[in-house]
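Self-study notes.
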Amino acid sequence: MNYKMIVLDLDDTLLKNDGTISKRTKDKLVKAQKNGVKVVLASGRPNYAIEKIAAELELQKNGGYIISYNGARIIDCATNEELYSANITNEQIHELYDMSMQAGAYIQTYMGDYIIASESNEYTDIEKKITGMDIIVPSDFKEYVSGDVVKAIVLQKPERLKEIEEWWRPEINDRMYMTISKPFFLEFMNNEVDKSKSINRLSELLGISMSEVIAIGDSYNDLSMIKAAGLGVAMANAVDCVKKVANYITDDNEHDGVAKVIEKFVFQNGQKTVIA
């Protein structure tokens, strides 16, 4: 198969545990782009927290793309044009706030280049470290967040968050897209949003078939794109349900798993391997 697009999750996939990209992986991605392969960074992160990574990989120079907020935004790196956007409504973010307070969880959203948090907590501090964005804790969250937002994240310790996810699923139903990205992040987007839908939107714009797409990820919010891609790849450090649906399992994020996929399936024209 002649693959024309590589879609990459960031945390625990492209990025090593220290948040950097290995030289081997960077070199392979730059080489792939110079050979006409489109590189797309698809993450739950805000645009702000992806732009430096896109610049390091030379996406602006080579016509790459950013899919941010789990698919709620598509950005053309060459022009900085927003090709797609979808929000959750003000009523929905206020509803999620009320539900979070009842469940004893925290909630955060984004306004401009700031994280807006219901109260100070260790999990929003982690998001600040990941994204480099400053945190605002308003005295009245609902009054401060007075318009539509790109997404919301409910935060709690992993065991409790899984309970909340199961508890809320019948209530949320299909009104919003709900997914766990990190074990302590339960994310909510517009119901027309997930990574696979935005990859499909972008592929159609570029005239690329989904069968010509490689998608690589590790967590629950990567499930849809790994199932939809022509070659869905799970990292060795991926959660079990992602490994189960993947066509191929590569090495982990500390041992150049992404580079090894490019070497095997882009430059050596390897055949797709089905993992039982």
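Second protein, same conventions, sequence then structure:
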Amino acid sequence: MPPKIVFFDIDDTLFRKWQDFMPESVLPAFRALHEAGVLTAIATGRSPCALPAKIRALIDAVGLDILVSTNGQYNRYRGETVAAHPIDPADIAEVVRVCRAHDWDYGCTSEEKMALSSDRQRVHDSLYGTVPYETDPDYWQRHPVYQMNVFITAEEEAAFAASGILQRGYQMIRWHPLGMDLLHADGSKARGIRAVCAALGIDLADTMAFGDELNDLEMFKTVGFGVAMGDGRDELKALAKYVTTPLEQHGVYNALVHLGIIPGPTWNNA
């Protein structure tokens, strides 16, 4: 039986952010899934406000059924919010205090905007210039925030941990040598996937996911079938039920064909 939903990570699964590249086979893959009656979903650490232009164009062209965003903190089904988990403003205030005491930059992300404390070089270097943001250090005082960013090195992590923030029920996930996400300890793509499937009455065994990174580990432990990208993390490949080729080699499209989810033939670069 084919899956009822396929969840796709964005970065390095559908899209290479430092090259602004999405394979031409991605749009036909989504169209073929729709024609097969399979719901399409994106599961990403990005907020809806930070989706790359090429991903937005994909969504406009073919439609998207489900968006699990901000590592499961903000989730939609066909445009309607299914589940949302904002960070307590009192905890945000403490993070801000610690960051200002150490002269660290921080960011606050809602579904509408990513607002950073400054636009210093460390911020530019970590975001690759591909994620839109505004400089607004007090944004969190006026809007719900689903995830924070702290722009610190690995050497600075110990000082941040010593502040006691994580003991309030939070976790940090590094995505760049200069940047980390801060979110609820139980926040993950898996949390959003469980919420969406519960709302739709779909068994988790009837789901599939594509991913490549460490923040996809919980997702692979939750869905019925995990597909790892060929250049993904070894830890994720160990959990996967199938390992496909990198995105430049049309790994998503060809895996769907190989697994019998969409009709062939396979896609090649010729």
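Instructor comment on the second fold: The domain at 5-84+187-259 is CATH 3.40.50.1000 (Rossmann fold).
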